[in-house]
Amino acid sequence: MNDASIATLQAAILAAHRARFAGQDGLPAQPTPAIDDGADPIYQAALSACSQLGFIACDAHTLALAWQRQSQRLGAFDASLWPSHAADFGLSAPDPAHAFAPCPQQLGLYAVLPDADWVGRMARAGVPTVQLRFKSDDPCAIHAQVQAAVAAVQGTGARLFINDHWEAALHAGAYGIHIGQEDLDALPAGALQRIRTSGTRLGISTHGYAEMCKAHAVHPSYIALGAVFPTTLKKMATAPQGLARLAAYAQLLRGTPLVAIGGIGAEQFAAVRATGVGSIAVVRALVNAPDPEAAATLLKERFSTYP
Question: What residues are paired with 160 via a beta bridge?
């Protein structure tokens, strides 16, 4: 296939999907990664098209491979069919022997909170899922906060996840642990197996197709998708994903519990829930609210209004 034919395939992909991705999310075009001369023409066309749609290099590569596999599976190239088949991304069904303990498909309103006092406060306010995101390098302070958070949710029915501090979480008997991509890479040998065999749930943050595939290979209890909208709470290596991408991620990962996170307020709950995710995580919408308990009630109502 010559360069003109590859350009035709690329143009067909852009024509079919520009309005959905580039139009709604407004992410700038990315440089097309270098391509081997012998690469599959559909891969080449999709890599260039996805870069033009604003996908960063690793995600454009992941998508281009999926386009190639999709065309092989179907026996034809279909520019209108955005890849969403698990097999085209190399995703396999979880092996029960290697999967983490399950959690509900819908974790509901998910509050990410700075300390154990906030955890207890929001658990008592009826928030169904809470996360302790306590930032400290002091092992004693970490241990005390994790222990206090576990105690704070007792009798409330809230599910408690501990961010990063996995050993303290295992020691305290927390419901689950949440880790980011960097934390996943930095875990010592045997850590995932220790968490898995303990029956503790595991959630993993992702920021695009490549990280989603990497997280899925671990077979976690849930996958977090973000940041959906701009957020000032932490420096993000990737641009906000936007609703169109979030919907595409949810379609690919259907059957996996999903948590949308990043800059989400009450006014965006309907649009976020419409993408198909089962849970919405919030930070500022609660901790910066004049009346956090009233805000929790409002957000729970907003969540249940859009099943």
Answer: 130
Place of tokens 């040998």: 189
Q: What CATH number does residue 255 fall under? A: 3.20.20.70
Clarify whether residues 171 and 253 are in a common domain. Answer: yes
Q: At what angle do helices 292-305 and 116-124 cross, to 10 degrees?
A: 60
Q: Cβ contacts of residue 247 below 8 Å, gap of 6+? A: 274, 275, 276
d(CA 229, CA 205): 15
Q: Answer yes or no: do 47 and 135 share one domain.
A: no
What is the tens place of the pLDDT at every residue in 87-101?
A: 999 999 878 888 999
Q: How many structural domains comprise the chain?
A: 2
Residues 130 and 69 in one domain: no
Question: Is 224 within a domain?
Answer: yes
For residues 257 and 89, what is the distance between their CA atoms, to the nearest angstrom? 18
Instruction: State which residues form the domain around 162.
Output: 108-305
Q: Encode pLDDT of 191-221 as tens digits.
A: 999 999 999 999 999 999 999 999 999 999 9
Strand (E) or helix (H) holding 129: strand 129-132
Residue 96 lies in a domain: no
Three-state SS at 132: strand
List Cα–Cα distances, 297 to 46, 104, 126, 292, in angstroms.
Answer: 45, 21, 8, 9
**Does 167 lie in the same domain as 240?**
yes
Enter the pTM of the model. 0.95
DSSP alpha helix (H) spans, the chain: 3-17, 24-25, 41-52, 57-74, 116-124, 139-152, 166-172, 181-186, 191-198, 209-216, 242-252, 269-273, 284-287, 292-305
